[in-house]
Structures are given as structure tokens and as C-alpha cells.
């Protein structure tokens, strides 16, 4: 059985906005037994370190940007080594509502008591750019189906993955499934872990009784009546490349593999039309297509 007192939180930072990050920590620290902040080479790391240590969290600097997945793995391993029964993954701009962790541990325990093999549990989240609650996506056959989430719904919704920020992962599951896929570096890391856990028989659930505020990307633009998230050009590279890498993995459901293969090319078209630095975006995404098709993973030099 999980309780907030048995949970360690792993939070990855990279040049956080200090005032907002302080709010994140103050909301998080009272809800878990320990917070490990893994810093991915922030330019003013000493300032971030002082803030972290002043709010009674553990500081783990990497010195350079080794990627989100590697940073998460450093924190996850430290949490498991310390005896954590479960790990709450967090990012630097998600402010938790009170009692989120107790709500997640209760959900985990209730489902586990029903004999459900839990891979992860998380909360529904509202995108701060448009105020909408994000939908849940699941593969059914060769399709990926979108399910709308309603705030305060008492029943958890099953998902194929739970986004990393605010997700609770049981320690035994992490030991069985393994840690994050470090060569992916940043994008789609949480999805890949969720798919890998599913392939080993675990299930993922999202609760809407508490809705988190979560920031996706640097902004939103409209295309054909739909809002799409904007990211830096190098993030466009990683998404396109990693989508193609995942499309070739046999343990992932066919619907998701087809989704990633199709979306990688749509993504290139969409982000060439929208956003700033269009020529740089196009160059990075074409490189992502090339690297994804030939199976190249790991970090890339942005000026390549």
C-alpha cells in the first residue's frame, strides 16, 4: 500500500523561472517524504540550488543538459535506492493542488485492491494556454481514440500512458519495467515508458477529481480550427525523430505505431506553416525525419 509518507518526488529543472518554481516546490514538499531536484545544467544553477535547499529539497546537479530522460533516471534511481515505495514525477512549472499525492495514493490502493496491475496513476490536467482539460488517448486496433475528460468525474479513466508531470509510479513496477529510455533524450519519453509498461501487463489510470494546471510548450496557435502547441525548433526535431523511432517498436500497439508514423510527417507540414523561425524549424524537422528513419537516437547539436 502506498501512502504520501512513502513517496519520493523527482523533479527535473532546466533554467526555471524562479518565482514560479518556488511556488511549485512549496506546493510539493509538504505532500511527499522527500523531493529530489535534478538540474539539467541551468545557467544560474547556484541560484536554483539556493532556492531548492532553502525549501528543504535535495539538490542533484548534472552540470550539463543530459536530457530529460537521463535526468529523470538519476532521480528515479536515487529514490529507489533510498527505499521509496513509489515515485512522483514532476516538472518545473506544474503547481500541485493540496492533497494531490494523497488522492493518487488512494486511487492506486483502491485499484490494486481490486486486482488491477497498476503501472501508473495521474491526474487530469488543464493546459494553461487555453484552459482546456486534456483528453485521454487510447489505441483500439489500428486507430487511436480520443476520450474527453470531465472535471470532477468520480471514476478514473484508463489510458495508454500518463504524462510524466504529476504521475505516480510504484517502485516495484519501475524495477520490473525499467527506467526511462535515455536515448530518446526528451520528447515522448513518458509515452514510451507507458507503452513499455503496458506490454508487460500493467495498466494506467487518470483521475479527474483533481485537475492540475500544466503548461505545454511556449504558446498556442490555431490551425484548421484546432489549437496546437508551439515549441522551440530543436524540440520539433526530437518529436519527429522519436515518433519515427517509436513507430518501429514491436511492443507498442499497432494503433500508436501507425499514429506516430503518420503524425511525424503531418507535424513537419504543420510546424512549417506555423510559428517563428520557419526555415530553422523545417531544417530541424527534416533532420528528425532522416534520423528517425535510420534509427539514430541520443542528443543532437542544435546548430547541426
UniProtKB/TrEMBL annotation:
Annotated keywords: Glycosyltransferase, Transferase
Q: One Pfam family from the UniProt entry?
A: Glycos_transf_2
Q: What is the recorded name of this protein?
A: Rhamnosyltransferase
Q: Which PANTHER family does its entry note? A: GALACTOFURANOSYLTRANSFERASE GLFT2, RHAMNOSYLTRANSFERASE WBBL
* Domain of life of the native organism: Bacteria
User: Which InterPro entries does the protein's record reference?
Assistant: Glyco_trans_2-like, Nucleotide-diphossugar_trans, RhaTrfase
Q: Where is the Glycosyltransferase 2-like domain?
A: 10-116
MF terms (GO), sorted A to Z: glycosyltransferase activity
- Which family is annotated? Belongs to the glycosyltransferase 2 family.
Transmembrane ranges?
Answer: none
The cross-references to NCBIfam families, in alphabetical order and at most eight, read:
rhamnosyltran
N-terminal signal peptide: none
Q: Which CDD domains match?
A: GT2_RfbF_like
